[in-house]
Fold each of these.
Amino acid sequence: MNKIKQIFGGDARQLGMIFALVALIILFQILTGGLTLQPDNVNNIIQGNAYILVLAIGMVLVIIAGHIDLSVGSIAAFVGIVVAIAMRDWGVPWWAGILLGLALGAVVGMWQGFWVAYVGIPAFIVTLAGFLFFRGANQFVGKSNTVPVPPEFQVIGAGTLPEVGPSTGYNNLTVLLGILACAGIIWGTLRGRRQLINIGATVEDAWITYTRMILICIVVLGAMLLIASGRKGFPVPGLILVALVLLYGFIASKTIIGRHIYAVGGNRHAAELSGVRSKRVNFLVMANMSLLAALAGMMFVARSNASGPFDGVGWELDAIAAVFIGGAAVSGGVGTVIGSIVGGLVMAVLNNGLQLLGAGADVTQMIKGLVLLVAVAFDIYNKSQGRPSLIAFLTRRRGAKTTGDAPEMPSAATETSRIDETLGQSS
């Protein structure tokens, strides 16, 4: 057990969601007679849930900053219908339609961000208004009709990597992608370790680094080989999702604006005393959320081959559930991009497995609700005992200590000092 702690950087409780995801996959693989890990089914899980995971990436930043966004489903549906009509009736090329959708999402996000950040209306109220307005706007613009989209546009939602090169029984581009991913993991790990050694920092034992690196590469390459063995290659929505995870993971953990988001969510007043411009942070997270909602809406429309009046219904609840299951705190200041993706995958595998078993939508919804309740209750219990959340170790300093007693609430001065230190490190 000590070796496991050293390899993964935390104990089994902290990695509970990852273990829960693995356990769910194994459970449904057994119960469905091997259907869960069929290549085509794995492709379906990725394509069918990529848009929700894109929403979860934006939602986790909103929740870390201490807000909530109820309008994402309506915005996604509104952007989807506008883009579909633009391509069908206005002769807009598919690539220009994507740019139009992203621009429209950004404008909507800046509109909502203005009311939250600079007028001071709570995000719950602003986005509830947006939920109502853009749901009506979707039906008004589309006249409650279904609008088809061209085949070229459908690639971002339903496309897969094509087959190239000699016949090997695998999709060659998918295998190549897995090899390149492993090469990037190895290069990044060794480079990071070498940089720490060069500056004289304390590094973990080499066997720990190499074991972790090898395990990650095995998982990545194994998943790619599994997908490549099917009739289709790796899905294009999955490529978009991976790119966003890398980008927003870097922003959240390695940039000043990422540190500021955590600071504002943890203690806004202390962050402002440290020089953080909380209004700008709130504006950016709300604008970014709508931008990603627009992208998610277009991905869904592309997979569905058409935009309709009932697109986006309930999406905000799925995205919020993914974020909280992934370890984010209701009060803000805690959460990770990777955690939200893991939470979303838990829900995706649960949905898919229950469907394969023939469970009805009513049973599926009840089970999803219980999973969300248990995950958040477990997180709150851990915090009441002075322990970190399920995967909160990803966002705390390695040297941080936890005790069995409930932690004291920090004073503004203490919190300001901590944020100053964090901002100084990020600079």
Amino acid sequence: MDLKENQSVQGDLALAAAPQQPVSHPEPGSKKRGVSRRSLLIGVAGLAVAGGAAWFSRSLSRSATLYTYRGHSGPVKGVGWSPDGRRIASAGDDRTVQVWDALSGAHVLTCRGHTAGVLALAWSPDGRSLASAGADGLVLIWDAASGHQVAAYRGHSGPVKGVGWSPDGQRIVSAGDDRTVQIWDSATGATLFTYRGHSASVPAVGWSPDGTRIASGCVDSIVQVWDATTGADVLSYHHQTSSVFALAWAPDGQRIVSAGADFTAQVWRPAAIDQTLVFYRGHTGVLVAVAWSPDGTRIASGSQDSTVQVWDSASGDTLLTYRGHDHWIGSATTNAVAWSPDGNSIASASDDQTVQVWQP
């Protein structure tokens, strides 16, 4: 049973149990009213919908959609929850990074400084800063409270498509079309070293949870795992048969999921060469984003088939399919899907110019 069929049954029960609330359509500049956490827990059909800024709207359909953020004026490429779960940041082709309230969808601030589309973003572990990677070849660091730009990294010679903070927040890794992965000091911007183990564009990169290794995925179909301090290769994963566009480490660091143009997501152990555990084949289009649930039991994958699918990380069984978007999930990007820190919600970014927050 897919998400819409399942929610149809649950929606009938919820409608019988709770009164419907009118949908608000705020005008630009209208006064924002908060939405209580208690009302969010009542259920999708009985969700109390308050007024708000013109940037977002809410859905009371029988899907699991909690609200839709509409602050961007172009395709949205990346999304991420703050470590405390209170805010969400999104990045898009309109050259902005936007921060908004994770509960209500109310716009908080906009970061402007890129001269081309923003392709990826990442929160610092302490939640005080954001890093954004752009088609302009820049990685910019922002103060997450004010939206002010505090640093710019210019080490790349082409579009930057992947970015991530080390677990201790002291280093940043970035990767892109210049075939390099670069590690640099988050405080000074000084390049620490450049990894050159790939033969083509590198759209996917991620730190291991313990900070000792980095995995980077290339459009030559190979994922490299290497030492985050020395750059020494640990292993190469060759089971993807086409471009790798997304990857993520499991929370315990014992597995990696990679995905791409061969329409598959694959779960494997970085401690053993080519030890594939799961092949997931639920999508009918290129996969562009993958994210682990905080407990490591589920994976959400986003595709150019316009769906986000949630599946069991051990068995590969599909648990649900989210069909709320009407265009590709963040094409040509790597972090268009993100779990909330408590594992109760997912945010997905799309070329339909929206970010949708929903319950898996």
Amino acid sequence: MTPAGRPTASFFVQLLTLTGLTLVAAWAISILLLFALPPPVPDFYRLGEIERTFQGTPPVFTERRPLVLREQARPPSPELEGRSMPQIRAKLAADMGVGLHDVVIAGERGPLSDRRVGRILRDRAQRAGVSEEHFLIEPFRVGIRQPHGRWKVVEPQYGVGLSAWQQRLALWFVLSALAMAPVAWIFARRLSAPITLFAKAAKRLGRDPRAAPLELRGPKEIEVAARAFNDMQERLRRYVEDRTAMVGAIAHDLRTPLTRLRFRIEGLPEEQRGKIAADLDQMEAMITATLAFVRDTTRAAERTPLELSSLLESLCDEMAETGAKTQMEAGDKVVVEGDPMALRRLFANLLDNAVKFGGGARARVFRDEANAVVEIEDDGPGIPASDIERVFEPFYRREPSRSRKTGGIGLGLAVVRSIARGHGGDVALDNRAGGGLKARVLLPL
């Protein structure tokens, strides 16, 4: 349905209408050309003009193609037949002083070489005061055998390019195409608009699963597809929320047995109680981190324009106040649409890792085609190639002790990738050639 409530024709009907209009327009243009541009009258040459060319003094033509004289070993072919051909051959043989069998008139008789065209040309010649009765219509080739056996051939010169009539015809077609171009553009834009809408909706779904559903408008097929897309988006949203809620509920319920275990270990010997308490502290930290991760991923936040250089600079300043070695390089002012709290946590985690494992962090922001790029480097030992992707897995740590002194519990980079992909971007790690690690974050502009 259109915004005004009027029913919209189906995609099939619109495509059929476009095809029908195109055919009708082509037929109309063809009929117009047929009546507006009559076929040209072919050039004709009097017998005297042909004879002068054989004698070496060809006439000069201003509107017709010039006659050219060639010499060849074989007679021209195929021979032309017609009621006037024997008379023309006889007169040409007599005028040139050769035998009748030494004269050949060849050519291809096309649709313009019929008797009616000949009468039209003869009447035109008479009106022009030309007394010459015999003439030939192009295309033709007249050959006369020489005493040494070779043949001299006279024919109209055919150049490269279009004739005047062909140029007018081509101009009509060009003008017709230009006249139809706006109509074709309007129809093409109308037909492609729903496809463009689906592409934008798919990108928006990748950046924000809670994006508004598609509007149910357009042809019937598009309405059906839009309704299916909205249903799919809603199912995906419920699926993600249900799984996230389940993980959060499990993590929350685990706190009760952990609390009971803390009471029960009070009666154990000091050596055993210390080891078990350390394990319980680690489990408590994992549960707390899991609950925070679930809370952040399920929190619906409004996305606003955010200038990345200012955000990175403020984070570097805050960390420098606590003694961390951070540096923000001068770069482009890049604005993205995003959740300020989530992006702040993303870059804070990367800067914290660079400081903790690399001794310091250097950050820069710039544009790369349709993306904003944030790179954070350190001078640490880097990561083996086999672990570059695994470090993004939840709870994975290269240092197996999971001590709070040597690192977190393995959710930092998982949160970073989740936030980046939630904004339609991604994050990747790469070992630098001179040593150290580089984190590269892409966010769509």
